[in-house]
Design goal:
Layout: H1 3-12, E1 18-21, E2 26-30, E3 37-43, H2 51-58, E4 70-76, H3 92-104, E5 114-117, E6 120-121, H4 128-139, E7 145-153, E8 158-167, E9 176-184, E10 187-190, E11 200-203, E12 206-215, E13 221-229, E14 239-247, E15 253-260
Parallel strand pairs: 3-4
Antiparallel strand pairs: 1-2, 2-7, 3-5, 5-6, 7-8, 8-13, 9-12, 9-14, 10-11, 14-15
Length: 264
């Protein structure tokens, strides 16, 4: 598994972003001048080939806030539910996003597990060396956008998120969109039907709520406040928010940032 390799990436890329705790229950971060790598795993509990990819994503270091150049997210899709098991984490907008990415790349189908790296299909994810090289190449590039992010925990699992972003390259200004995602880790599911019947599956970086695309102004900037919901009782130490800016015309990810919710 790629844990050893990705940890070496963390050491080599220390300082890519800074997390700034404020008062209890609130925290903030700003993105680095260098590009963080957004890793989107499209997965399903109804897919027998997905658990290895889920474990692979769990081994990645959460990034954009503590020196890692990787922002991992798991987006569960429901198009395998018909096999007999309804994925409790699936949302229709995730399958819609996966289909849109496929259309931008002129692909004729979607599949699971699929890893999308910086907006592009990346089939070599199981090769730790290929993945490490790809991430290093992304991290070496200057960011195309700057992001600021703050989280305040409210009652009943709600996170109030304030985000700001600006596009650094004029070519992307007209097509840029900001996305916000609240995620949970250390989730366990006992699957009772379908292809994974009888298995207990663990998931990390699972997107539970989602906002976007949020349009930029004509000045290439955006500020947004959104309330993103986590399930009641979600542990703060297992939760957080990711933000990323995407060129909607090409699918290119211009910058990404990930911030755990602060305790207190």
């Amino acid at each position: 598994m790629p844990l050893r390799v990705t940890l070496s990436i963390v050491a080599a890329l220390a300082g890519l972003a800074a997390a700034l705790p404020t008062h209890a229950g609130q925290c903030a971060a700003q993105s680095s001048p260098r590009l963080a790598a957004l890793v989107e795993l499209y997965t399903s509990e109804g897919c027998s080939s997905c658990p290895p990819a889920d474990r692979w994503l769990s081994a990645l270091p959460p990034g954009g806030h503590a020196g890692a150049g990787i922002v991992p997210l798991a987006l569960h899709v429901g198009y395998w539910d018909y096999i007999g098991w309804k994925d409790p984490y699936a949302r229709p907008e995730f399958a819609a996003r996966q289909r849109r990415i496929a259309a931008l790349q002129h692909a004729t189908f979607v599949y699971t597990p699929q890893v999308v790296l910086q907006g592009r299909d990346f089939r070599a994810w199981a090769s730790s060396s290929a993945f490490s090289r790809a991430v290093a190449q992304i991290n070496a590039r200057p960011a195309g956008a700057a992001i600021s992010l703050s989280i305040e925990r409210l009652r009943n699992g709600v996170l109030q998120v304030e985000a700001g972003a600006r596009v650094l390259a004029r070519a992307h200004a007209g097509a840029a969109g900001l996305y916000l995602a609240a995620y949970q880790s250390r989730l366990l599911s006992r699957v009772r039907a379908g292809e994974n019947e009888g298995r207990t599956l663990r998931h990390d970086f699972v997107v539970r709520d989602w906002a976007g695309p949020i349009a930029f102004g004509t000045d290439g900037r955006v500020r947004a406040t959104r309330r993103l919901a986590l399930p009641p009782g979600a542990a703060v130490e297992d939760s957080g928010v990711a933000a990323f800016v995407e060129d909607r015309a090409s699918g290119e990810v211009l910058q990404a940032l990930q911030l755990p919710a602060c305790p207190g």
